Amino acid sequence: MKDRAVLVIGGGVAGMQAAFDLAEAGIKVCLVERTLSIGGRMAQLDKTFPTNDCAICILAPKMMDCYRHENIEVLTLSEVTAIEGEIGSFKVKIRRKPRFVDEAKCNGCGDCARVCPMGILNKFDMDLRVRSGAYIPFMQAVPLIYALDRDKCMRCGLCEAVCGKDAIRYDQKPEIVERNVSAIIVAIGFDPLDPSGLTEYGYGRYDNVITALEFERLICAAGPTGGHVIRKDGKEVKRIAWIQCVGARDTRDNRPYCCSVCCMHATKEAILTKEHYPEAATFVLYTDLRCFGKGFQEYVNRAEDDYEVKYIRGKPGEIREKENKNLEIFYSPSSDRVEKLEVDMVVLSTALIPSEGVEALAEILGTELDKYKFFKLKDSYNPTETTRAGIFVAGYCQAPRDIPECIAHGSATASRAMEVVLGGSYDRRA
Amino acid sequence: MTEELRIGVFICHCGINIGGVVDVPAVVEYASTLENVVHAERNLYTCSSDGLESIKSAINEYELNRVVVASCTPRTHEPLFRATCEEAGLNRYLFEFVNIRDQCSWVHMHELEKATEKAKDLVRMGVAKAALLEPLEELTSEVTPSAVVIGAGISGMTAALSIAKNGFHVHLIEKKREMGGMLRRLYKLYPTEELAAEFLEQRIKAVEEHERVELHLSASIKAVEGYVGKFKVILDENGAEKSIDTGVIIVATGAKEFEPEGLYEYDGEKVITQLQLEEKLKRGDSKLDGIENVVMIQCAGARGEVVGYCSKICCMNAIKNAKLIKEANPDINVFIAHNELQAYGEEYELYYRDAKKAGVRFLRFPLERRPKVIKSEGKLVVDVFHERLQMNIPLEADLVVLSVPLVQNPDAEKLSKMLKVPLGQDKFFFEAHVKLRPVDFATDGIFLCGTAQGPKDIEESISQGYAAASRATIPLAKGYVSSEAIISSVDEAICVGCGICESVCPYGAVEVVETEEGRRAKVTGVKCKGCGTCGSSCIKRAIKMHHFTDEQLIAQERTALVTEEVVS
What we know:
Structural class of chain B: alpha/beta
Oligomer: heterodimer
Strand content of chain B: 25-35%
Strand content of chain A: 15-25%
Largest interface: A-B, 81 and 84 residues
Structural class of chain A: alpha/beta
Largest sheet of chain B: 5 strands, parallel
Strand order of the largest sheet of chain B: 8-7-6-12-23
Number of strands of chain A: 24
Number of helices of chain B: 16
Shape of chain A: globular
Helix content of chain B: 25-40%
Number of strands of chain B: 28
Number of helices of chain A: 9
Helix content of chain A: 10-25%
């Protein structure tokens, strides 16, 4: 075993945990993140179930611990483009996209963002907020280094003129760096499904049908509306319904699986709504309520008993928009009836699907995916081992799991990588 | 203290979390008028990289020797700010945290002016304490490079083997004569339907063959002493006492099946549990001769009937057993009466669909109208209220199988006391943080995995086994641990050796020992968690709780009661 180092791909909660454990055990880690900041999907959430902890508040210290760790090198805006070699001695090529800002000089003051005349929808906020062309995705972004959106930039020169650190680099070029590692951990997470194609829900056509991740940004105090759940016409919600399994447990699009977390995040979102608006009426329309984790049943009991969240068993066949932009949901609670529920906002608990680009990455890594594009395991009951020796997989990109399961899975892959680095073990039996 | 006090105060907006309620600029202005404060500023997020930079540059520029941050909560952010002070050359304990979010802006959202006044009061108190802070040093101690894993079920075996492969000696302790735990009683596993015995055999072999795994079978824990890096575990192994030195401990003691005595006419013969069914199937009785109708009842004793929680694995286990019976003998009718089917994730949903295809029939009852088992003249009828049809359906049954929850082992309480780690309300071992630390205990050096933490399937138990191995390997690989600097100490000149402190210390860190001057209390620094119980119970005020000394706390309280006019 030549290289006492490990590559972690993906800076979400699973990847960060893997990186942190390895680093604490004295192993060098290169953490490669595709976006501008580590933190992953958890950073986008308002609170977390079943404790209602503020997501970014408990995550931000972990992000900083990772970034500041002497054994962790964090490469953001970076993607793995090639690997050579085998377990014990992989050679990895990483493409670092330009930030158009000198990372060593930028102190994150944000002066460039204030003078930039561009207005661009911020992806982190699910396109619900406008950011400038010089930006960080969110306030607690790690590292706190600005980037220029050169696709939209007109090179007006204002940011360059105002930057007191002389950090603007309009002509920065992508660069390829190489790292030698003994093992690789893949933890690239998920994307929410765009439900526009599921026409019965009217997403994209109706004003007040939104996705759960959009809702998370709305209810977040630091989000685009300062925590107000408002409709497109500016009115605050009074009656709101969550619809479960949107595009999941659905064979139409080869997505029969259950995403494991949506029953609980819908419950959490309904509770948060009631905390913000005690008078609001909240409904969750579901097929099977899956509250199987530690403290989950108790959380659902609290939602029903203390917050008067109404759970309705029934999957809507159709949603219609009324003239006042309210929504009529048609569902069937029993074999011989169709009922109508009128609300002023609908939140879709959409399927969470393997991230964009997963196939290309799997190809580069030489690992197999299953038929739903999750990373395939070498053997069942061996939950960290991909089909290629020395490459391990953590978090949602292997199969649906919630945050604590992703963290345990992240640590689990760390131990497998430790087996290679510390123990020199190439034994692939679990 | 001879040096001039130079205190810097940093007030955080926390976006609008604080800034939307508290008038932060006014608090900054107020802070700058306080005694010994030479610099005060506000930050949008003090915890962001630029906020931290700003603390560091202020420490240098204004020669600060005490730092106060008023922001969210020390629970998540104190370590970060302490580390930042240290990076700028200041002892990390010359930092004081003032909580103006959790304890001010969040609870006074609708009283803006009062919230601002309270924030000023809190900052004034923090500054008063900061003036009396003393530098402290953390202790480091060596780590015995071996691990103890308690319980040789699937998660414990996984953890032990991984730590061994990481290069460290492992003692695997099992109270039974054989490894394997609950898996020994299973017939086949879902979703692969491989034989549990075959699966287990390979795993047991790998553990047995590994040179760094030392097995202790028929062994129970008698006592545990020590602390992270230097534990001593006393065993009773086949009647002989043994002492093991270890750096870390993993709890993997598993769970057991709930016994449904008095529920659903349970008798162990015609009305049995899923595990009893597994054993029946394992004995080769998968044809279930003479049986025409099998009815399974989910959530028997769970989700509010006896225990409150959902046991996570029972739906899939029932689906598996139902499918196996149906496939072995298609003439048998198999019904599963359930409330919410927990066929979560990728593979289980597909497996559930396969079971439906195989002919297993599912009936859903509302939780408030659970099925009834009626026994008359040797016949069994399960009366199920069908939720969708809104009517009762009586199902004749030759065999009723109760899907009962996993519950904690009865000896867990004893172990939890020996290790001084908590059990939750559901009696399962309670991890350090439900979201972020699933396999850690709050006590350093002790970890947990598998069903001892709560119901979970085999794959997840294995995943947690590896996770606990990773967490436990960290101190072993490092070779040392740093422990708390905030600990108590005894002034032997005042102590009279009464022993109250020893009796109240929850960590066994205080002992009364004989000295030349007589009996005196003594604190073992690395064991002390800084809870302060000894200090507050000492009738002679001989115990100093560092960082929370009487002087520091009294100064804080005094200034809390002083009005603004008097200060200025």
